[in-house]
């Protein structure tokens, strides 16, 4: 199982991770052995320790059988339900702005 395979299998379930090299990795940078799991998006939504354990369980299930489409569909539904329980909080003052891709300034609506 490579980091790339894990990244793609988890993405199919709605779980975002990044393929990542691990110390002394013998694989190439674009096909590394490991993954990186970040939690800022989860804590921003207010997810607690129990939610993190649940997500960890899903990750374990998927990585045991990354090609199991039936399992991925089931977990994708569970991920959606968890996300409904912990919605993304609004960004103050962002209601009337559109943003460019990451790293760009917001675009203000034209007032004509």
TrEMBL record:
Its cofactor is pyridoxal 5'-phosphate. One of its GO terms (biological process) is tetrahydrofolate metabolic process. Pfam families: SHMT. Residues 1-59 form the Serine hydroxymethyltransferase-like domain. Gene3D superfamilies: Aspartate Aminotransferase, domain 1. GO terms for molecular function: glycine hydroxymethyltransferase activity; pyridoxal phosphate binding. GO terms for cellular component: cytosol. Residues 90-112 are annotated as: Disordered. Keywords: Pyridoxal phosphate. InterPro entries: PyrdxlP-dep_Trfase (IPR015424), PyrdxlP-dep_Trfase_small (IPR015422), Ser_HO-MeTrfase-like (IPR049943), SHMT-like_dom (IPR039429). This is Serine hydroxymethyltransferase-like domain-containing protein. The lineage of its organism: unclassified sequences, metagenomes, ecological metagenomes.
